[in-house]
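Subject: Sanity check before I submit

Could someone independently write out the structure tokens for this chain? I want to compare against mine line by line before I put it in a report. The sequence has 64 residues.
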Amino acid sequence: MPLSVETHEHGLQIAERFGLSVYDGMVAAAALLAECKILYTEDMQHGRVFDRRLKICNPFDARC
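---
Independent answer below. Compare away.
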């Protein structure tokens, strides 16, 4: 997803609400706006769910 004003604003809100870095907030916002259901990353807490529709999955975790 391109970085738009909408992505940026949503990313800042996510970062503040969930205590993430701004960068991680932008990644989560882009995934949400792209309507992804799973975000594979080792940088966020495995199993965490954003907005009841985006689940974080650590690809190095056997539970993923």
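---
OP: Matches mine. For the report I'm noting this point. The chain has one domain: 5-57.
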